[in-house]
Design a protein that fits this description.
The protein has about 500 residues and is an alpha/beta fold. Helix content is about 50%, strand content about 10%. The protein folds into three domains: about 30-165, NusB-like (N-utilizing Substance Protein B Homolog, Chain A, Orthogonal Bundle), CATH 1.10.940; about 220-275, 2-Layer Sandwich (Alpha-Beta Plaits); about 275-490, Rossmann fold. The strands form two sheets. Strands 5, 6, 7, 8, 9, 10, 11 and 12 form an eight-stranded mixed beta sheet that branches. Helix 6 (about 110-125) runs antiparallel to helix 7 and helix 7 (about 130-140) packs antiparallel against helix 8 (about 145-160). The protein is globular and about 85 Å long.
Length: about 500
Amino acid sequence: MNDQPRRRPTAQQGARQAKAYRRPKKDPVRILAFEALRAVDERDAYANLVLPPLLRKAREAAGAKGGTFEARDAALATELVYGTLRRQGTYDAIISACIDRPLREVDPPVLDVLALGAHQLLATRIPSHAAVSASVELARVVLGDGRAKFVNAVLRKIAADDLEGWLAKIAPPYEQDAEEHLAVVHSHPRWVVSALWDSLGGPRAGIEDLLEADNERPEVTLVARPGKVGAEELRRAVGEDRTLPGRWSPYAVRLAEGGEPGAIEAVREGRAGVQDEGSQLVALALADAPLEGRDERWLDGCAGPGGKAALLAALAAQRGAFLLASEKQPHRARLVERALEGNPGPYQVIAADGTRPPWMPGSFDRVLVDVPCTGLGALRRRPEARWRRRPEDLDGFAPLQRALLREALSAVRVGGVVGYATCSPHLAETRVVVEDVLRGRGSERPVLAEWVDARPLMQGVPALGEGPDVQLWPHLHGTDAMYLALLRRTA
């Protein structure tokens, strides 16, 4: 038995013991960003749908505690989420070079914290020590102290070099493997790089500009709906110092400083909407395509969520034409109804399958089918799509795209015009689909229709290619990579 008297700790020893454990600091901005990334990974959610309610929740929580979640906090959270998703491929390659196990053996929540830390270290102005410290604190809160030590060790290795230095280490030389070099440097899957390059053509500079444009934050663009508000009137209402005119569409207004479109009165009232300028150009080209004979009945055969349908309805109303907006999914049809609410002209919204339509053949003068696709043209807005899509997805969309175009050509009268549109530049979803349908591949007989040159219908827009179809590009036009083919039914 030890009968030595128990010694009282000195004051200095007691202070050290009291400091042995410190509770982690909860940073609402980084916790929000982490929650958004987990939702994208676990639920296949889209960041643009997940982030707004998380931001509202953060503002409400701060207010309940007597604090504020300021605009700069929301801006940082948004940058962390979108920036991390856009550069995920590059960051994964860097993280992989800093650990001693395959990346797939690291728990996804740990990878999310590491990627958030890597983005702060390599792509923001946050000082390195602050980026590491904040990321480790986040790890302590959401992962626990044990895994936080792993996060700390990896991020300190990443902090030893800048992005340019890391790319020189992890990307193969361009001359050795051009597509893999571009995939690592510009954070796109290799198959996407290959597909985009095939569609774009041209030398290295062009594809690098396109890939870099995919990694830039897109402008928020509004559409002033004809008959409800004019573009200049909308600019004055929002503030001319906060807006810019559209580049190509007469109805476009760009928000110079971003911001929350839902806070704009004209948007809340349905007189304006949020719509990429490429989508506006597609709708306008269909509406302006020359027709022979009557111009009374229009159809949007894939109308959800309603942006193009709302613009078409407003244009149709000015000409006394009727618009039928059809959407297969009932919940998306309800979104279309909300988008068209208050339209002055005659219209109807229905939930119907465009491949088995309820309307009679030859019923319409103008038809738009903006078909489901891989969404490779909107990677600026939905950066997670580049990591979610697979080459085999093309095979899944192909029969649907062809069926929708065939039924659209059946729905239009002789002399009427069909617009085939898709938010993808992939050749397998654009020109190949149109050519297959016109030649009758996969069906009993060819469709009797002819190409209409879409380029003159986009006045002032440069670099539209050799036609007759049109492919828009983020790096050339500042729009999503929208595709449009116009076809006239001949018999």
